[in-house]
UniProtKB/TrEMBL annotation:
This is Large ribosomal subunit protein uL10. Forms part of the ribosomal stalk, playing a central role in the interaction of the ribosome with GTP-bound translation factors. Keywords: Ribonucleoprotein, Ribosomal protein, RNA-binding, rRNA-binding. Coiled coil: none annotated. It comes from Candidatus Nomurabacteria bacterium RIFCSPLOWO2_02_FULL_40_67. One of its GO terms (cellular component) is ribonucleoprotein complex. Pfam families: Ribosomal_L10. GO terms for biological process: translation. One of its GO terms (molecular function) is large ribosomal subunit rRNA binding. InterPro entries: Ribosomal_uL10, Ribosomal_uL10-like_sf, Ribosomal_uL10_bac, Ribosomal_uL10_bac_type.
């Protein structure tokens, strides 16, 4: 059993983490093997995302009046993934879920905090599926290039057609 002073220290640390992050994801990691959690932590760290495991009661105390709305139900064993980038933490958790889906890895998004509001798991999953900035820019470049490329092909066909009739 933790002493009151240790609990207060943990709550203070969680409050600082919550305050310093742009987005926060509540994760149920029940059934996650230690080796899988090590891989998860490494991949999150590489993406600039922090990860902390906490007792639900202490986390609930740290979350009081930190965001608008109602705290989503925190079922199972709960951890938080957080980052200064608004989309990075949900995206990285989702990517880990997706790559380890067939392995029976237990990792579920329960909800989170986004733009100062508590949001449910469905909204957090929507955020997680937003592609990275680089992917969006490459898609935009492809979309802009495609009509120009078609125009160039059409002009070259017109030139070929005029050259054949002379």
């Amino acid at each position: 059993m933790l002493q009151k002073s240790k609990k207060a220290e943990i709550i203070k640390d969680l409050e600082a983490t919550i305050k310093g992050s742009e987005s926060l994801v509540f994760v149920n990691f029940h059934g996650l093997k230690v080796s899988d959690e090590t891989v998860l932590r490494r991949s999150l760290r590489a993406a600039g995302v922090g990860y902390k495991v906490s007792r639900k009661t202490l986390l609930a105390r740290a979350l009081q009046s930190k965001a608008l709305g109602e705290i989503p139900e925190l079922a199972g064993e709960v951890a938080i993934a957080y980052s200064e980038d608004e989309i990075a933490s949900p995206r990285e958790i989702y990517n880990f879920q997706k790559t380890n889906k067939g392995k029976g890895v237990g990792l579920d998004i329960l909800g989170g905090i986004f733009e100062g509001k508590f949001i449910n798991a469905a909204k957090m999953m929507e955020l997680a599926m937003i592609p990275t900035r680089e992917v969006l820019l490459s898609k935009l470049a492809f979309l802009l290039r495609s009509p120009i490329q078609r125009l160039a092909v059409a002009v070259s066909e017109v030139v070929k057609g005029k050259g054949a009739s002379n």
